[in-house]
Structure prediction request, 497 residues.
Amino acid sequence: MAQAQKITPRAQDYSAWYNDVIMQAELADYSPVRGCMVIRPNGYGIWELMQRALDDMFKATGHQNAYFPLFIPMSFLAKEAEHVEGFAKEVALVTHTRLKATGKAGAGAVMVDPTSALEEPLVVRPTSETIIYAMFAKWIQSYRDLPLLLNQWCNVVRWELRTRLFLRTTEFLWQEGHTAHVDEADAERETRTILGLYRRFAEEWLAMPVITGVKTDGEKFAGALRTYAIEALMQDNKALQAGTSHNLGQNFAKAFNVQYQTAAGGLEHVWNTSWGVTTRLIGALIMTHSDDNGLICPPRLAPLQVVIVPIWKTDEEKKAVLEVGEGVKGDLARAGIRVQLDARDTVKPGAKYFEWEARGVPLRLEIGPRDVAQGQAMAARRTGGKTPVKLDALAATVSTALAEIQALLLARATERRDQHSVRGVTKEQLLALMKGDGGFAYGGYCGSAECEAQIKEQTGATVRVLPDPEFRSKEPSKTCVWCAKPSVAEAVWAQAY
Ligand SMILES: [Zn+2]
Prediction:
């Protein structure tokens, strides 16, 4: 009967656990289209809260939303050489515009109309740099038009062979910011501002600690000058890239001829940035906090923050507890808390507890006849612990509890991340760590692509970032962990999603 029994424990099979948590919480489901997922209301509710928070942050930093076409002429993708190489192997193409009836029955009832072939095939956007910068070329004439700070919320398609719910799917939802600036300094400032914004969102909303830093040339975005990222450590000690911010330099401006007249009257190419986070963040949320009983959702991103479970035996008791339950629901809702009263009489309270736990609701209020008599409810936190709370001034008590749960989740995740971060690793330690428990390995790096490739081949670990100063070790290694030549930067290695 217990829902929780249907969830495979993490220690037994981590990836089965991950899928079970998603299925039990009804966050998503597999679709009839291979590699594409359906995001169910419980999962989409989390995405809506993420969108709202991020969108507010984008607007507060001067960005505006716009929308560009889903289709991109194939020739556009060819204009930036590195970019096309990065995406060519995973694009979906539209080549025809019509089907026609064959007169046959069943699956053969329609066929592609060969007379409807497009002169130029259209790419289903894998990312929108090309089509957006083609428009920027039209809109930007003068330095007065800069900076241009746009964002788009949309779906993209990257034809993936191996997919996992939320983490890697052929179609996914995201936001992509695209900006144009007068010079490199301003573009770099923007790239950094967004990286900081993503970090703040990860910590304050997802309750997920991240390391920020720059990617190596081998790991940067196809067509970028520099890529910065936020990196988090999941419970299986694999890293997850949770957001990226790219300084694109003038690569796309030159490919799409985006020029502006300077104040002095000259003509210059603009400097671009692009940045994005995706529905992968829901996967990050699940894997950062959840346990063997199911989803644990940070209160700020929980579509349902409080569930009230009334307990009764007799009709008289039922009337009394439901009346109090309704009152509590009203009080909390008026205080802006997302709350539901589970008045179903076909499900026993114990089964309700399991169900709401699996769905990650941060706080459960149980109200029985004795509680009603004492003017209280029992508050059970999804993170553990159950205490009586007075019904007077309950909204304030609940708000405090939710804030405490939010803070506890960040503290727990930070502690776990730090426990699995090893600083100043030797080659032997790096090999042993990646063969064993995994985690973040900090070590010296000579900067060569060869060392990077060999480490990847022999340990499965990649350089996640060359960390920003605040994340660096107090005394970083002076030699490369792999070749023992002088280190040019400290690096963080991990196996990654
Ligand atoms: Zn080296």
User: Anything to note?
Assistant: The mean pLDDT is 96. Residues 446, 448, 451, 480, 482-483, 485 surround zinc ion (CB under 6 Å). The chain has three domains: 2-91+126-289, 306-401, 421-494.
